[in-house]
Amino acid sequence: MRAMRRFGPLVVACGLLAGCADWIDEDMNAVYEPADAPAVTEETRELHSSLFVADLHADTMLWDRDLLERADFGHVDLPRLVEGNVALQVFAVVTKTPKKEEAPADAELVNPKASKCIAPDNLNEVGWLQVAQMRPLDTWFSLHDRAFYQIDRLKGFIDRSQKRHEANAKAPYLMLVRDVGDLQELIAKRQNGEPVVGALLAVEGAHWIGGDGMPVEKGVRELFDAGVRMVAPTHRFNNALGASSEGCDQRAGLTDDGRTFLEAAEGRGMVIDLAHATDRGISQGTADRSGPVVVSHTGVRSRCDQAQHAGDCVYERNLRRDEIQDVARTGGVVAIGYWPQAAGRGMESVAATFHAAYKALSAPDFVDEMRRQEPDYDPLDHIALGSDFDGAVKTPFDVAGLQTLTAALRQFPTPEGVPAFDDEALRRIYGRNVCKILAAQLPADGSDTPENTCSNL
Predict the structure, then answer these.
(1) Given this structure, which CATH class describes domain 7-452?
(2) Predicted structure pTM score
(3) Which of 15, 56, 98, 403 is most deeply packed, by most CB within 10 A?
(4) Tens-place pLDDT, residues 292-330
(5) Domain ranges of the chain
(6) Residue 117 burial by Cβ neighbours in a 10 Å radius (0-12, 13-18, 19+)
């Protein structure tokens, strides 16, 4: 989720007038019309309808839309998830996004051209949003309570959708995915033709845990018990768990509490997300992991020098080649986003970002290294979808328009050394890779057979 520019002043100007929060939502989560949108052929539609589509990041719970009703703004709701053929959507909980301001003299920034960073004491735009939305008073002041309000809100939508489905078998519904058994049930129901979309809970920045806040083990246990199955220790500023890629000390990494947090979360069967970690934090976070690590929504830093991307790219927010490779070494995935700061503007630029990730994963020296340990290593097994929908970003399509991405990845030319993404490649990128990670990492009881969970996708 990027900076909500003008967010704080807008809320102050609007006060608590009805519709202010919706106006901010509509302005921040817009869909722009790409000039190079490819035609979606009938063949592409048929392929897309056969895919198990999994998206690793949406911030929809931050906003006041009814998830079960189709909205005419924003990016995600249940009707549009169904229209986009999404099988599994990760819903992230966001609690604090301070404004990016001029960096202090002692700031450590990795981009020599950058002059701004995000300090924890800067204006918290999400805090103002709670006021504009008239959410419960405890969410105005407590990051913990703000997080659990969003968690409960998603569960409320799930419960309502299931009651609707009980009354009308054609009505689409959501189900919470907490373990391998749930994942297998989701796959079986979809293959049986049921209109179900899986929902997985994630936390984007556990700011109230560690340091002088909640003890790490207690905080992780509470998140797990609430159904959270993906955790990012940091978001857009440094906290007690580690440094952020957009914070003011971008040379730092994980703290001792941050390392304990990752170990505790991984040990409980939660997926580690390093989307907002610094370069050092990614190096630390991918080292000595027993399970796969993901970067849930990102771009590729080498693309920042490309003409399509240079004006929008947030250099420090996107991954270096060696970081993409570090994630793959854990068996994890890098999930590519569609917003300009990660992928540039236009569908060709978005497709080129997927190609750049593949190029990093297919570097000859890296392939040789991986195949010495894993003879079947394939770069395609480590790329996924990470939209950042509803993350105060502008995208070239909403979730209902995912077929546009499918068409772009099938049709746009690839650079030298990158093969065209055929149907099998798209099956992996769109969902099989994520399914395999969840099957490997989520809790499983003795009756589950995780290794077979994703074989038919």
Answers:
(1) alpha beta
(2) 0.94
(3) 56
(4) 999 999 999 999 877 566 678 899 999 999 999 999 999
(5) 7-452
(6) buried
